[in-house]
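W.,

You were right to be curious about this one. When I first looked at the sequence I had no strong expectations either way, so I just let the prediction run and decided to look at it fresh. Below is the sequence, 215 residues in total, followed by the output.
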Amino acid sequence: MTFSKMLSTMSAGMLRTCGLFALTLLLSLPLGMLVALLRKSRLKIVQMLTRGFISVMRGTPLMLQLLAWYFGPYYLFGWSIRGWRFPALLVGFVLNYAAYFAEIYRGGIESIPVGQYEAAEVLGYTKAQTFMRIILPQVIKRIMPSVTNEVITLVKDTSLAFTLAYQEVFSLAKQISASQTSFMPFVIAGVFYFVANYAVEFGMGRIEKALDYYK
């Protein structure tokens, strides 16, 4: 198989990888904020449940979570898992990364001095207005480096989709390499991940510079 044919065959896997990455990021970022806010709830039961969720998501391998989400409905309830492969992947990735983003958000929120909340209250701001107009913009600026690291990790973690035989770029690279006894598919996959991470790093860097209002 020629290089151009390999690249053409793997292009479909690249699109699937990009789709999984984009949907995971789109859903896990806001969900992470919700989890972070629940983690800071005044209700002890909500705090405990949220802590438990974060501990499980961060304390077990993502590969294991993907297998659990895919095979769990069948083994536990006898449900058919036909057509469940991509939804299981998406649920697994979103919940896992939401837990990591939640802890990043929480660290950013807790880094804001209490005096800013008190000043906003004196000025007549509601709690929602205080958070959205004063706290959140500062939190976003402070957590950008950590979020960038997680997003880069997400790009590489999409390769774990091969666990459920999802035809993303890494799965196709393995198949073509085995059938053609060639290392070139892995080189193509490596270049793809490197370029994708470079694009993420460049984009997030531009956002960081835009938020660096002190300069």
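Here's what jumped out at me. The chain is about 80% helix and 0% strand. And, maybe more interesting for your project: Residues 3-39 form the longest helix (37 residues).

Coffee later to discuss?

I.
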